[in-house]
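FYI - complex with 2-phosphoglycolic acid, inputs then prediction.
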Amino acid sequence: MRKPFIAGNWKMNKTISEAKDLVTSLKEKVAGIENVEIGVCPPDIDLPDVVEIAKSSNIKVGGQNMHWEESGAFTGDTSPVMLKELGVDYIIVGHSERREYYGETDEEVNKKVKAAFNHGLKPIICVGESLEERKADNTRDKVEKQVKAALKGLNQKQVSQTVIAYEPLWAIGTGESASAKQANEVISYIRDVIETQYLDAAEDVRIQYGGSVKPHNIEEFMSESDIDGALVGGASLQAESFAQIIKKAAQK
Ligand code: PGA
């Protein structure tokens, strides 16, 4: 049985003091929930405080991006070794904003995914099609290509520990989510793609939906067969709305 995973991607939001307030308040609101895994992914600068506050709670902490090298002349970057030493559990890799604004390629995503496993971090790999690709009926091809490229070279055990977030670009930050049916269709396709190559691991890999997930629509997504949780942007920036999403997911 796959344990649903609700993760919050704070993006470039929250100063250190705001981050401390948010995670402190969230911790109280979601205390005792064990049937859903809970994660927050703050900006790097907030990580030490958030990790400290989340310690001995049911909240896991993730980074939003990292370099694949352990150290070196890469101005402005953070390495997997640094994140691991801090006590970070997860790392978002290949978010569409990184792919779009920073030109991150499938090959780089794959290097980051491998680096994550080499350093004991679990990747949350983001994939998804643009509106043009959906209109041209290219959704399946696009996500299949992204998934295969991201997982290249991993073994079955690593694949089973991977989290994938299916996030159609047209649904991110727009308030226009995919329908639960649309999301489930693509997510089960992703599972099929994984099965052809990694067999049983496909049953373990958790695949989240992301894109305008809110307290009012989380239940629809959670009631679908293949959706194992959500990667939440905007609605994770307030403890109350994020806690509501988690609680509703936990009731499913
Ligand atoms: P959103 O962002 O919930 O604000 O649409 C989701 C994401 O980008 O992960």
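The CA atoms of residues 10 and 237 lie 6 Å apart. Residues 9, 167, 172-173, 210-213, 231-235 surround 2-phosphoglycolic acid (CB under 6 Å).
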